[in-house]
């Protein structure tokens, strides 16, 4: 199927909300990891989200070029061509973008999509994330409001972060402290500034103890009830029935989370869960195994010529793709919760 249109992406998110499941949002940094993500979703028979961080986009442009927009556009264009061969819907998203990179990443990419929409085409990306967690909330929401105007016109969904995800990702680091929990006041300020969908659709990465990085299961102490509290207080403000979930929520920093905590979060309106650390390892581990098993073939030892079949990158990248795809398929299964996430 082609990359999801704005209408298809909206339907994907609505379906997740109604059925209490979440789509894995897989970070990619190259055509090979993008292929692995597509394969993983197809093998799980699941629609999904593929995303590119600022660092991932810079890397994808080439280590000599190091241009975020060039890399992001290249990966998106590649995805638009290759995804047509797969029987699932894929949405393209850009991950964490802090304030100092907005002018060099998100804003130019929104402009690219606006130019496409003006020509009667669909946007290049279906959503973008503004990460204002490092600035005061009022400033965060002011910038978010400005971006929401732009993304709505370009038929794109905006993702924002309200609260702080601890740990480090792509050079953005936060301490692990009480700021990891989005307060009821934060939720209220968000809906007051951005509306309840009438100004444009947006996703909220609310925080409830999430931490980026590598942790053993149980080491991350989540409080999913924080998400319910936020939904409840906003539902009351908007005059919605009890139990309503006005926000479309995103789960960042899930490494080390217990499966029951993840499933609880899904019942409170989480419809997108970012996955990066686990899939990086799943991609790299087969390469390590190949190198150890074929060391005398990948190295020209003692004047020998090695084994071209062993050091041909295709020989180990194929296994890497398989490993990452399998992990993505597993993530799709874990994020089903009580609902179904098969391709629509």
UniProtKB/TrEMBL annotation:
Its EC number is 4.1.2.13. It is an enzyme of class 4 (lyase). Zn(2+) 2 binds at residues 131, 161. Pathway: Carbohydrate degradation; glycolysis; D-glyceraldehyde 3-phosphate and glycerone phosphate from D-glucose: step 4/4. GO terms for cellular component: cytosol. Dihydroxyacetone phosphate binds at residues 213, 253-255, 274-277. GO terms for molecular function: fructose-bisphosphate aldolase activity; zinc ion binding. It catalyses: beta-D-fructose 1,6-bisphosphate = D-glyceraldehyde 3-phosphate + dihydroxyacetone phosphate. Zn(2+) 1 binds at residues 96, 212, 252. Its cofactor is Zn(2+). InterPro entries: Aldolase_TIM, FBA_II, Fruct_bisP_bact. Binds 2 Zn(2+) ions per subunit. One is catalytic and the other provides a structural contribution. Keywords: Glycolysis, Lyase, Metal-binding, Zinc. It comes from the Bacteria. The active site is at 95 (proton donor). The keyword Metal-binding applies. GO terms for biological process: glycolytic process. Belongs to the class II fructose-bisphosphate aldolase family. Catalyzes the aldol condensation of dihydroxyacetone phosphate (DHAP or glycerone-phosphate) with glyceraldehyde 3-phosphate (G3P) to form fructose 1,6-bisphosphate (FBP) in gluconeogenesis and the reverse reaction in glycolysis. This is Fructose-bisphosphate aldolase. It comes from Saccharothrix ecbatanensis. The lineage of its organism: Bacteria, Bacillati, Actinomycetota, Actinomycetes, Pseudonocardiales.
């Amino acid at each position: 199927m082609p990359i999801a249109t704005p209408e298809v992406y909206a339907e994907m998110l609505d379906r997740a909300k109604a059925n209490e499941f979440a789509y894995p949002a897989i970070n990619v940094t190259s055509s090979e990891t993008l292929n692995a993500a597509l394969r993983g979703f197809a093998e799980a028979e699941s629609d999904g989200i593929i995303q590119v961080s600022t660092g991932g986009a810079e890397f994808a442009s080439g280590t000599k070029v190091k241009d975020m927009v060039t890399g992001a556009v290249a990966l998106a264009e590649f995805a638009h061509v290759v995804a047509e061969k797969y029987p699932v819907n894929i949405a393209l998203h850009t991950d964490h973008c802090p304030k100092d990179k907005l002018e060099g990443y998100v804003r130019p990419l929104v402009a690219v999509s606006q130019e496409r929409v003006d020509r009667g085409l669909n946007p290049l990306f279906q959503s973008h994330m503004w990460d204002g967690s490092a600035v005061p909330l009022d400033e965060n929401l002011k910038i978010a409001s400005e971006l929401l105007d732009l993304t709505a016109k370009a038929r794109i969904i905006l993702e924002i972060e309200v609260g702080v995800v601890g740990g480090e990702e792509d050079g953005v680091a936060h301490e692990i402290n009480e700021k990891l929990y989005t307060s009821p006041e934060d939720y209220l300020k968000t809906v007051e500034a951005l509306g309840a969908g009438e100004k444009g659709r947006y996703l909220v990465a609310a925080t409830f103890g999430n931490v980026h990085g590598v942790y053993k299961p149980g080491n991350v102490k989540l409080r999913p009830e924080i998400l319910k509290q936020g939904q409840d207080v906003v539902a009351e403000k908007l005059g919605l029935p009890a139990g309503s979930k006005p926000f479309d929520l995103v789960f960042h920093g899930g490494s080390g989370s217990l499966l029951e905590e993840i499933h609880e979060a899904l019942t409170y309106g989480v419809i997108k869960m970012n996955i990066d650390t686990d899939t990086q390892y799943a991609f790299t581990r087969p390469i390590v195994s190949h190198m150890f098993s074929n060391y005398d073939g990948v190295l020209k030892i003692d004047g020998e010529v090695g084994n071209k079949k062993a050091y041909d990158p295709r020989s180990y990248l194929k296994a890497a793709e398989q490993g990452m795809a399998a992990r993505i398929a597993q993530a799709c299964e874990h994020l089903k919760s009580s609902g179904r996430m098969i391709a629509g």
